From TrEMBL:
Belongs to the adenylate kinase family. It comes from Selaginella moellendorffii (Spikemoss). This is adenylate kinase. It comes from the Eukaryota. Residues 154-189 form the Adenylate kinase active site lid domain. GO terms for molecular function: AMP kinase activity; ATP binding. Coiled coil: none annotated.
Length: 241
């Protein structure tokens, strides 16, 4: 643990003010579900800050557990070194560890998990053992053709990370960055063939998860094709209840 005497005063005060602001926030345990490009990455930081939640991405948690050499991280590394998938029980165990941290005191946003009904059942069982449960599942609904137009039109300036879109935010000169005049590139995943494969996997694996939580009356269906500010408004409305 860092010596507080070495932490800058501005950082200490900022954290103190954040904790005071968060003290009266209601607890929220959320799952974000949606296909790639549906806007989860845009909305999750807003939700995290507004409701004082921690953001849990399973891939990041696995890497952190492996790097920290926790008992579960060691087991996960053994599986990965053998080329095996990390078991659902291990992933749920790592989530269990993560949500006990002070940063998750007011709850969490789970992104990328559960992907299957079996994972959802294990997650629910773990939370039930703690006397907790999932409060809301935010389903970022968007039609495949709309998503294809959104994703396959994206172009990136690799040096700066500036992004463009052929329809929604085109560069001044097609194919080149507005600032440097350097060529734009398209990421290898931003093409129709890769997107179709990812969408097929999403529909086959994850849509049953939506149905699972729908049966528990926990799903808020968001219109993810709308502008981000409109989606944010829908999220806020869903989380009032």
């Amino acid at each position: 643990m860092a010596d507080l005497a070495d932490v800058p005063v501005d950082d200490l005060m900022g954290e103190l003010l954040r904790r005071m602001k968060c003290a009266n926030k209601p607890e929220k345990r959320l799952i974000l579900v949606g296909p790639p490009g549906s806007g989860k990455g845009t909305q999750s930081p807003i939700i995290k800050d507004e409701f004082c939640l921690c953001h849990l991405a399973t891939g990041d948690m696995l890497r952190a557990a492996v790097a920290a050499k926790t008992p579960l991280g060691i087991k996960a590394k053994e599986a990965m070194d053998k080329g095996e998938l990390v078991s659902d029980d291990l992933v749920v165990g790592i989530i269990d560890e993560a949500i006990k941290k002070p940063s998750c005191q007011k709850g969490f946003i789970l992104d990328g998990f559960p992907r299957t009904v079996a994972q959802a059942e294990k997650l629910d069982a773990m939370l039930e053992n703690q006397g907790n449960k999932i409060d809301k599942v935010l389903n970022f609904e968007i039609a495949d053709p709309v998503l294809e137009e959104r994703i396959t039109g994206r172009w990136i300036h690799p040096a700066s990370g500036r992004s463009y879109h052929t329809k929604f935010a085109p560069p001044k000169t097609p194919g080149v960055d507005d600032v440097t005049g350097e060529p734009l590139i398209q990421r290898k995943d931003d093409n129709a063939a890769v997107l179709k494969s990812r969408l097929d996997a999403f529909h086959a694996q994850t849509e049953p998860v939506i149905n699972y939580y729908n049966n528990k009356n926990l799903v808020a269906h968001l219109h993810a094709e709308k502008p981000p500010s409109d989606v944010t408004a829908e999220v806020r409305s869903a989380l009032k209840s």
